[in-house]
Write a structure and sequence with these properties.
This protein is of the alpha+beta class. The protein has one domain: q2cbj1_9rhob like domain (Jelly Rolls, Sandwich). The chain is 24% helix and 24% strand. It is built from 6 helices and 16 strands. It has helices at 7-16, 27-43, 61-67, 70-80, 108-111, 248-265; strands at residues 18-23, 84-86, 89-94, 102-105, 113-114, 119-124, 135-137, 148-150, 162-164, 173-174, 181-186, 191-193, 202-211, 216-217, 223-228, 237-238. The strands form 4 sheets. Strands 1, 2, 3, 6, 11, 13, 15 and 16 form an 8-stranded mixed β-sheet that branches. A 4-stranded antiparallel β-sheet has the order 4-12-7-10, with no helix packed on it. The chain is globular. It starts with 6 loop residues before the first helix and ends in a 10-residue tail after the last helix. The relative contact order is 0.24.
Length: 275
């Protein structure tokens, strides 16, 4: 038995490459976080556009709170150990009846992080189900890294529109999450999500990845946060937490890290997009 996860959950993660649902926040707490996030969006809309949806935890306290939540981090520790770095975050907001989707892919393919031992926490701040475009996983697909095709599809919300060919959709498992719940998946598992066909926003906040500090960035040195324990390796430039929303120095740090991410994620690509 771990700090948060049961032995059965831990075994399922190693067998399937993912686990869900995991209770983190109450629905009331999730609503508070959503309300704070949408208030920030109304005040600073530029902070939710293009590349700024990456690493918004560095300049918004409500997202920083999620990244450091003790219950969430306990679950992470159960899977990767007591020394934990956070590489970064992404806001995946699908508007009502929006055609945007995420193609079948593996997170590890373009992130430049070795070895592939990081895990992604996907936190729901609204209902995430098959109607709203929840994540879908291919159980047991977290073995070898597959070839991906860069499509740059207009409605594909991944950076390169990258996709794995020949995935058997019939094997997909839908991860149904209530507001305040999360899923955790391996950086190597094949996953996707469909468009939001509901009348509410589908708000997912993704911490990607939590990782032990021996992981290295193989393309370009960049930053990370020390969440718990110690970092004896020094493979990343450690950054702090925001004390207020949208501080000038925090925005500058976010933009520098996002520029690094662009160099990393688009390494070898024929074109770049602004996210």
């Amino acid at each position: 038995m771990g700090k948060k996860l049961t032995n059965a959950q831990i075994e399922a993660f190693h067998r399937d490459g993912f686990i869900a649902p995991i209770d983190v926040f109450t629905e009331d707490e999730a609503m508070r976080l959503r309300t704070e996030l949408e208030a920030a969006e109304a005040r600073w809309p530029e902070a939710f556009q293009g590349a700024a949806r990456n690493n918004a935890h560095l300049n918004l306290k409500c997202l920083d709170e999620i990244v450091h939540n003790e219950t969430l981090v306990d679950a992470v520790e159960d899977l990767i150990g007591p020394d934990i770095l956070n590489y970064g975050t992404v806001l995946f907001i699908k508007e009502p009846n929006d055609p945007g989707f995420v193609s079948w892919h593996q997170d590890a393919r373009y992130m430049g992080l070795e070895p592939h031992v990081g895990i992604t926490a996907w936190v729901a701040l609204s209902h995430s189900n098959e109607t709203s475009g929840c994540m879908q996983m291919i159980p047991g697909s977290h073995g070898e890294i597959k070839d991906h095709n860069d499509t740059f599809g207009e409605e594909n919300i991944l950076t390169r529109g990258q996709e794995v060919q020949g995935v058997d959709d019939a094997k997909a498992v839908s991860l149904i999450l209530q507001p305040g719940q999360m899923s955790i998946h391996s950086a190597r598992v094949i996953h996707a999500s469909q468009p939001n066909r509901s009348n509410d926003r589908r708000i997912g906040f993704v911490i990607q990845p939590y990782m032990p500090p021996h992981v290295k960035q193989t393309i370009k040195r960049t930053a990370a946060q020390l969440i718990r324990g110690a970092d004896p390796h020094g493979n990343f430039d450690l950054v702090g937490r925001p004390s207020i929303d949208m501080a000038t120095e925090d925005i500058a740090m976010r933009d520098k890290i996002n520029a690094d991410w662009s160099d990393i994620l688009y390494d070898g690509a024929k074109q770049r997009r602004n996210f």
